[in-house]
Design brief:
The protein is of the alpha+beta class. The protein contains four helices and five strands, in the order H-E-E-E-H-E-H-E-H. Strands 1, 2, 3, 4 and 5 form a five-stranded antiparallel beta sheet that branches. The chain is elongated and about 55 Å long. It starts with a helix and ends with a helix.
């Protein structure tokens, strides 16, 4: 009985911890600008997913084209433009705990891109930063 529980515990853990995307956006550049002379933001997506039998995506966005599409969709929703992909990576952990990870394979896919925010978003973010700066001085 204990052996069966020990085999199912990782499967249950994968079910509750996979298929999620961690997103971060860097907006502070200390007055520095991008190549075009306009402010840029950097947005990163890291997706944790699971493939079946090493190669078949089951949970999460484990392929690079899907992750890039999702990142640029988020940038488009913010009305950002002039996107430049900075870094991509995809790590397939088939070797993590064989033979279990040969069946259900954890995959982490990451994409980072810089982009020019829309004037409205930039103005809103600068106003929020000014308010924070005022509160910190008090």
């Amino acid at each position: 009985m204990r052996k069966q529980i020990g085999l199912w515990a990782p499967l249950v853990a994968f079910t509750f911890t996979t298929g999620c995307t961690l997103t971060s956006t860097s907006k502070q550049w200390n007055g520095r600008v991008g190549e075009s002379g306009k402010p840029v933001y950097v947005k990163s997506h890291s997706n944790i997913g699971v493939n079946l039998l090493i190669f078949i995506p089951v949970l999460g966005w484990t392929t690079m084209p899907k992750e890039i599409d999702r990142l640029t969709k988020d940038i488009a929703a913010e009305k950002g433009d002039v996107v430049r992909v900075i870094q991509t990576s995809s790590e397939n952990y088939w070797y993590g705990w064989p033979p279990f990870t040969w069946v259900l394979t954890p995959v982490i896919t990451s994409v980072s891109a810089d982009y020019e925010p829309s004037p409205e978003v930039l103005a809103k973010d600068r106003a929020e930063q000014e308010q924070k700066d005022v509160k910190q001085k008090k």
